[in-house]
Design a protein that fits this description.
By secondary structure, this protein is of the alpha+beta class. Strands 1-2-3-5-6-8-9-13-14-15-16-17-18-19 form a 14-stranded antiparallel β-barrel. The longest helix is centred in the N-terminal third of the chain and has 17 residues, at 2-18. The chain has a single domain (19-412), classed as Porin, CATH 2.40.160. Helix 3 packs antiparallel against helix 4 (106-114). The chain is 16% helix and 55% strand.
Length: 413
């Protein structure tokens, strides 16, 4: 009987020996604040308050350079599990993401910090302003396989939207007549805000979908990588607030003969009430920032350059879902992401106690050159910590224009 059981179960023993199963659990944290012009002193003042002198205001305004200021911030935490067997990988991950993406002109800073008193007889242009803030959770299922020298992986994500706020001013200007005798305001603005009846950070206000695709081609010592990730959107619920207004407004003041008889009828006579922005409740669609990535990796004969990677990244995030998918729409999404192509070179140096991974890059949410550095310890069980902006850590803290740190813990069994 024992011999019969061994014979019957022998195929299972062979299968268990030939099919290697790998499990891994991974935790990721990413904190990023990046600015094209404004430094850390601006962020500290906005968060913690403090006295802002005229010289500080002037310095902030003049840092814009090309008259455009970009702010980007992301705080995300994620946990993932992957299961690998027979060159096939199945995975599930969860991430909590908070994203701020804003762009505005120097004139808007002038208006905000100085008012319009010092700009009599001038026109302040605050067009091209965009402020987008999102909070959502991302649940992702992934599948990958290897076919000889090619690796392919796909992913699909469900997005649970908590909150969204966006203000898009395509055209906007303010003219102040000498001595403030009249104001001329022209603007084309759209605003979207999710339901504000509950401000719980995990309030469910929308549902969305995101897709990802990655391929790697291996030949000899070279690897070519092509991918896109987080190509998706969130549909916010019908209780959301939508505002759209395209107006020209001239204000010449109000003549009050008797201050004690000032009432609403005076405002009505001057048509001020008709210029109040009006809102409606409806559903709308917003996009999350998608990443497109191309890289080339190989091995060198130098001690400090045994492995290197050259790559380029782009972001796609249009303001509105206002045109059908076309080449124009694709170009619009790259432009409105506030992200310029990021070129980078990365290498891996194996030290005594850990791997040192330096990165030199140019582009992103600013046109500055950036130096990244990461330290990686362990193969099977790995811990990595790094920054994308080492040069700003080494600067005087108040002058830094970027703050970033990320770490990763991976356990394999």
């Amino acid at each position: 009987m024992r011999t019969l059981l061994i014979i019957c179960c022998s195929p299972l023993f062979l299968l268990a020996q030939t099919d290697e199963i790998k499990h891994s659990i991974e935790w990721n944290t990413n904190l990023l604040f990046e600015s094209s012009s404004l430094d850390k002193s601006f962020l500290n003042t906005m968060l913690y308050g403090g006295h802002i002198t005229d010289s500080i205001k002037t310095n902030w305004i003049n840092t814009g350079g090309d008259n455009t200021n970009i702010l980007y911030s992301e705080i995300s935490n994620g946990l993932s599990y992957t299961f690998e067997r027979n060159n096939k990988t199945f995975g599930f991950s969860f991430a909590d993401r908070n994203i701020l993406n804003a762009s505005f002109s120097d004139d808007l800073l002038r208006l905000g910090f100085e008012g319009n008193f010092h700009h009599q007889g001038k026109t302040l242009d605050f067009g091209g302003t965009s402020i987008r803030a999102d909070r959502f959770q991302q649940y992702t299922l992934s599948y990958g396989t290897s076919l000889k020298q090619v690796k392919i992986s796909t992913s699909v994500s469900y997005l649970s939207g908590n909150h969204h706020l966006s203000y898009i001013i395509e055209k906007g200007s303010l003219y102040t007549a000498p001595f403030g005798t009249s104001l001329d305001i022209a603007y084309d603005m759209s605003a979207f805000v999710t339901d504000t009846t509950s401000l719980s950070p995990f309030e469910h206000n929308g549902n969305g979908l995101a897709l990802g695709l990655s391929t790697e081609f291996q030949f000899k010592k070279h690897t070519i990588h092509l991918s896109f990730s987080d190509l998706g959107f969130i549909m916010w619920n019908p209780n959301s607030i939508i505002l759209a207004n395209d107006s020209n407004f001239n204000f010449s003041g109000i003549e009050v003969e008797d201050i004690f008889s000032f009432n609403d009828s005076i405002l009505e006579e001057n048509n001020i009430e008709n210029d109040i922005l009006r809102t409606n409740n409806a559903s709308f669609k917003s996009y999350i920032p998608a990443t497109f990535h191309f890289s080339f990796s190989s091995y060198g004969d130098y001690k400090y350059l045994k492995k290197y990677t050259l790559g380029i990244q782009g972001k796609w995030q249009p303001y509105l879902d206002n045109t059908p998918l076309s080449f124009k729409k694709i170009g619009q999404g790259f432009k409105e992401s506030n992200f310029i192509p990021l070129y980078y070179i990365q290498s891996v140096y194996t030290a005594k106690y850990c791997d040192v991974i330096p990165t030199l890059s140019h582009g992103g949410y600013s046109s500055n050159a950036n130096l990244g550095l990461a330290l990686s310890k362990g193969k099977k069980h790995n811990f990595m910590i790094g920054t994308h902006h080492l040069e700003d850590i080494l600067k005087k803290s108040s002058k830094a224009k970027a703050v970033s740190i990320y770490f990763n813990i991976k356990l394999q069994f």
